[in-house]
Structure formats: C-alpha cells, structure tokens
Fold these 2 entries.
Entry 1:
Amino acid sequence: MSSNPPDVDYDLAIIGSGIAGLAAARVATAKGLSVKIFDKGRRIGGRAATRRANGFTFTHGAQFLTARADEFRDVCAAAVADSALTNWQIGGKAAFIGQPTMRDFAVFLGRDLDISQSVEITSIEAADNHLKFHTAEGIVACGKRAILTPPAPQTAALLRQLAPTLATIADGASYAPCWTAMFGFDEAPPLPVSPEPLQFDEGPIALANYEARRPGSDRANFALTIQASGEWSAQHLEDTSEQTGRTLLAELSSLLGVKMPTPIYEGCHRWRYAKVTKPATSTTKLTSECGRIAIAGDWVIGPRIEAAFLSGLKAFEQLSEASELD
C-alpha cells in the first residue's frame, strides 16, 4: 500500500466504539465536526455486549447500568423514550438495561455516527499538523485530533512514543478479568425465581443470569449466563473455554443444589479487561502536551458505564479547549 495518506481528512478520529468513544463522537458531531470512529471489534458498545448464537441471546458483558450525573441521566431518559433502555431493579436499587439487549443502548448512542468496525489501529504518527492512523496494511486515515478509548494497556501501547505522559497515566489503571460462560437449553433451567441476576460474594461465580427473566426478553430464551469472579478468572485465565464452561456450570449446580439439563449450546468469552479495579491516578488533564490527543474510558474515572460516558465528554471538552476544535 502506498505510504501516501488517502484522500480522507477528519477533524477528529476516535479509537474505540465503546461507550466513551460514542459519547465523545456524539458531542463532537453535534458541534459540526467531521468525526470518524475506528474499532477493532465486530460490534459497537465495547463491554456493553450481547451475543446471539444458535437462537439464544446472552448478555455476556455489562449486565446493567445506573445514572447519577445529569448529563447521563438525560441520555438514559432519551434512550428509554426511544425504547433502547428500560427500567430494572438491582439489589433494590433503580437501574437500566438495554432494550431488548445491552448492545441496543450502544446502537442508540451510535446512531448516525461514522463508524468503521473490524479496523485495528496499530500505530499513530504525528505529521505536520495532522495525525496519521495506521493499520497493519498501512495508513487508513488522517485526522487533526484524536481521542483514544481502548482499555488502558492498549491505549498506553499506542501512545508510548507519541504521547508518553498519557501512556504513563494509562499505566496506572488496573483491571480484573472475567470469564463468561453461556449455555442454551431446550427447556427452562431449574433456577430460583428471581427478577434480577443471582449474585455471589464468594467463590468462583460472581453472577448468574437467566436471560428469559430480563425485562423485555423472550420467555422462550432458555439461556443462562454465568460470570466468574475476578479472582477466579485471573487464576484460570489461560484455561480452555470448554474446561471453563463445564467448571462454572457444575459450580452453579452445586451452589443451588440442582441438576442442570444438558446444554444444547455452550460458549465462553474471556474478558481480559473486564472491570477496572484501580482507575488511573492522575486524570486532571486528559490531553497530550501537543494538544492534539486525549484519552477516555471507564479506567479514567471508575468501573461504571456512566463513568465511561462522562470520560468521553470530558476528553472532548479538554481537547476542544487545548486545540480550539470548535
């Protein structure tokens, strides 16, 4: 591929189509900027994820979200009005879930945005007054500014040479991994009747969710999602999917004292960067010294979907102030 950049130029390029990236793109687009989002995954939303397989639907990432800040409460209210979110109760407290799936909230946020999925940005090059964005095949775009929202280790790797101060900030964040096991049955599994996920404070399992009981779900969706604890997931991070799934299903059966039917579908997903256990320690300034790059993500503020959203707004605000974007 030619080393010359393509005839594409954006005011702002955003790496990552998770909640932070979508939040930043929404506000930037609303201000009339040309914005492009690149994401290496197949679907938008990051860990606000849903898997469909063999006729079953699984909430295999974040299970719900809450809203405290006015900015996020307003967005959630708009999503409820648009039927992309619905109300739920978790531990007796008000929460929201995607309607009908968690990914639908991300789809709502990403509506009318210019997003390219399955495009992994492997490096960013500063040239003149622009940034060049490279994949393994070559330059895919040029942009005036950038906001990076991948998990902290991936952000740090991209910025190690280009913006070392921001890379150091990203180095300060820590995560717990999470193994998620998914099972589909041809009959309802014998689980306790509960309007919300089963949660466990100790042991290998952190959460078990019978998908048919989620508000708005298909009652014939005999799907079970089990999420392992961070500690157990870290200890078994390199186990095979088959081994992990069987272990977690047997553990849940033992905890509940029931015999599960034989699954007709089994799947596992390993989230290496599932839950932020320690946010970055120095996040007063989210922009690079050159004023052309900013960082965002739940690892900037804390382990909540709302935190990711607010960090995207904050990153764009600081980038605008640093570089007169608008």
Note: Residues 117 and 309 are 20 Å apart (CA to CA).
Entry 2:
Amino acid sequence: MPDKLSTHHLEAAATWFVDLQGIKPNNPLHQHHQQWLQQDPLNKKAWARVEKLRHTLSDTPSSMSHTNLIKANSSRRHAIKALSVLLITGTSGVIWQQQDALPDLLAQYRTGTGENLSITLNDGSQLDINTRSAVDIHYTDTLREIRLYRGEIQLTSAKDPLHRPLIVSTPQGKIQALGTQFLVQTDEALSHVTVIQHAVNVRPNTADNLVKRIEAGQKISFSSVNIGTTERLIPNVNAWTQGLLIVSNWRLADFIDELSRYHTGRLTYADSVADLHISGAFNLQNIPDILDNLSATLAIDVRYFSPYWIRVSNKNKG
C-alpha cells in the first residue's frame, strides 16, 4: 500500500469536509465519515491536513484581498474543488492571494440561503446566525472572539466568570460587547452594527486610536479606516431570528432587496414599482408566497421566469 498522499485521498477529504458542514451531530453521515477514516491510514492523514489548513486559516489576519476564490453562493462542487486545490498545493501561494473566501469556506458555522442557526456558546452567550453567513468561534483563556466572515449575526452576551472580553471581528474591524445584545452584518466594504441593549465599542482595523461607543437604540456603519454617523435603529431589525421580516412603510425596492437575501436565485424589480410602500409581518420561509400576497394588495405583477428568477413589475407598465 502506498504511504504517500495522493490527489484522490485529498479530494475525498475535501468532499467529506464540505458535506459535514452544517449537519446535526446525530446525522448518520458522521458515522460514515468515521468509517472512512478507519478504512485507510492515508484517509486519516488527508483529514489531518484538512484540520491543519483550517487551523491555519483561523489565525489568518482579516486584512484580505478582494479577489474571490469562490463566490458566496458557490455550489458544493466548486467548494470541494477550491478546498482540494489548497490541500494539494499547500498554504503558500494561493492562500495568501485568495484569502477572503477561504475562512468563509472553512468556517465552523455556515448558513445557506434562507437558513439560520441559533447556538448557545460555552459561556452561555446566545449566537443567532442569519442567511448566507460564515462564522468561527475562537475562545481562549483570555479572550472570547467571534469571527464573522460573511453575513449577519445577533449576539446576546452572558457574564463571563473569567472576565474575558467578548469581541466580534469582521473584515473591517472589531466590536466589543459591553454586556449587551447587538447585531453585526458585514459585506465587502462595510460592517454594520445595531445595538438592541446596553452598548458596544467599535474599532476599525487600521485606525487603532479610533474607538466609538454605540448605545442601545443606535446603529452605525464602519469601514477598516473610518466610522460613520450614528443613526437610530430600524424597529424589528432582529425579527429574522424568529423567521420574520417586519416592516413599516418601507419602499418596495428596499423590501425586495432585503427579501433577496433569503431567496435562492435572482429576485429583481422594475424601477416603476421601487417607490411603492409596504408594511406588515412576513414569514421568510416562502418568498414566492410573500410576493403573490403582495400582488393582491399592490399594483404589481410577479413574473416567474424560472423557480430561481422572479421579477416584480408594474401591472400596467411591465
């Protein structure tokens, strides 16, 4: 039996890693994975390389390039291919040129479109993870850190007997909890913080001397170099933790943009309907039902070009 890892072993390990993401502990796939590990010592060796790569990436600085190895909505096949390349070539070269998507791919917790997770952390804090998100939990003897690579979370902090600071890190900077409940959303350029209870401190990555305290009822956006103006939070901004989108007098354009985060595929609208207004509470589990119900109350047409491509237009103008 050969004692050197082959491409076959590494690709198999990459496949197992991708398939195990996000499944429940009692899923039979975990048992099948253990059986695979026992079948061949080289399977264990390949899996050890996956774990080593994951550990390396968890300690990678968050100052990243904007070249994508994989897109946020990558398919299973593309995710496996991307991870296989890294396992075969090692962490030099590609990893440093394509850092932005790698922690996302290897994150402990990842949600797909329309999915969310609720996790109780080992200190008692509650972490809610919204659609299309990727998160790592990194607790040490001196620090509690949550690394948000993509998407949105709500964190309700618990008192820590060890008095360790609780930090949320994003590509743009760090948010320190001050006994609080707050939301953090990040995209390519900005992080957005909304404080529900108590307060947080916000610190951009490349501006060590710039710190701003955000109080309950406030929201703010910041980049890696600057912090924006404090604004009032939007009511019911965390309704997604209950599977709902609750809006009051929203522009239809803003409403559809928000809905599109939970829809697999394209959800677009015509300019002629952008400035219509809408209020209500909507169940995010079925986007087509929401749109069909809206068409009964607003002067809009909902057109399905495919199950994945929906367009909202004016009944008269198209």
Note: The chain has three domains: 7-106, 110-232, 243-314.
